Amino acid sequence: MKISFNGDEMVIMQAVLEANAILQNPEFYEIVAQHDQFDMANISPVLISGLMKASTLEFKVRVFRPTIFTFIKYYKTYAYTDGNYPNTLFLNANKLNRQSAEIAATIIHESVHAINGTTTYEFGHGDNSPIGKENTAPYWIGNLAYQLLTGNRPTGSQLGFAGIRVNA
């Protein structure tokens, strides 16, 4: 998998570099493969890791601004993918005031959804509520990316990359 961005927002350019570094890191795939199991998945972490590592998907990052008509649906959304645009990750312009590592983790989270969309397996997180989803593949793998990029884990008083409180 390769992530690309054609824009001038420095924080996104840095986040894309960081996300690509994670996707080139063998340790990342080893840690994913060693995870016991993911909630809401009918596939093992070993197979998810293998699918991600072998993927040739080219994933483009685009920025969107919620309009008056889409505000209710997207005002809390950090990013999303859309089956009509399978090679595109849409980042919310209103949610870019974060560290590049957090945005990179969001990109990795969404890349898990993109890989999931190319298979007959299921390893998503159901609805858009993040509550209780810490052990689903997208959230867990995104949080792993954040940990590898920063060398630490958010404490209970800090917001995680997806805007949920993360326990220490």
UniProtKB/TrEMBL annotation:
Top-level taxon of the source organism: Bacteria
Protein name: Lysine-specific metallo-endopeptidase domain-containing protein
Record organism: Mucilaginibacter rigui
